[in-house]
Amino acid sequence: MKSDGRERLEPGVPDPPDISDDDVYEAMKEIHGYLDITPGDFKRVYLLAFRHAFERLGKSQSAKDIMTKEVVAVTEDTPLKEVARLMARHRISGVPVLDKENKVAGVVSEKDFLKRMGEPEEMTFMAVVSECLEGSGCLAVGIRGKKASDIMSSPGITVGEDTPVLEIGKVLGKGPINRVPVVDEKGRLIGMVSRADLVRNMC
Q1: What pTM did the predictor assign?
Q2: On the chain, which terminus has fewer CB atoms closer than 10 Å, C or N?
Q3: Spatial CB neighbours of 49, under 8 Å, sequence gap ≥ 6
């Protein structure tokens, strides 16, 4: 919902469902008695209540409460063709890369693949399709023999198992990432929290 500049949600706090003036009028009709409040005031109270509820829930839950424990991950030595196969099979846009101690060394995402296949500012999935359809050759040839550690983004952004959900929302809100690995006190991978996990547990 738009706040018209009067109230701003904190980074990582999702926008609440949009409500119209008609929605407000209908709601007010269902409340018996006289209400000395305008639709604009009602919307402002609604937005503030939503923010406070989100923050309350966000502080009462942590990563370990909402994370997915079965995580698709690869090692630094995993060939890129296997990384791509896993991402395609599980329909995910990125995987954490683990070192020999099961610690997160980095992350490989679709964007990491695309960066190595063309100009970062110009290369997109559809650009790859276009190149293939035009018969210009496979853009992935140059990285065919490489492994996960060759293209991963490092260091990987992680959160601890006791990190409040509200803080995880802020981490995801700072950059173009859809999920963040959860690590234990020794930095070992124990789970994953996605944007979908946040929405599912905060709504």
Answers
A1: 0.63
A2: C
A3: none
Give tens-digit pLDDT for 62-73.
888 888 888 999
3-state secondary structure string, 111-151? Answer: HHHHHCCCCCCCCCHHHHHHHHHCCCCCCCHHHCCCEHHHH
Number of H helices, E strands in the chain: 9, 6
Which domains, and CATH codes, for the chain?
Answer: 1-60 (no CATH), 64-202 (3.10.580.10)
> 161: which DSSP letter?
T
Burial of residue 109 (CB within 10 Å: 0-12, 13-18, 19+) is buried
Could you report the per-residue pLDDT of 136-159, keeping only the tens digit for each? 666 666 677 789 998 898 888 899
From CA 161, how far away is CA 68, in angstroms rounded? 11
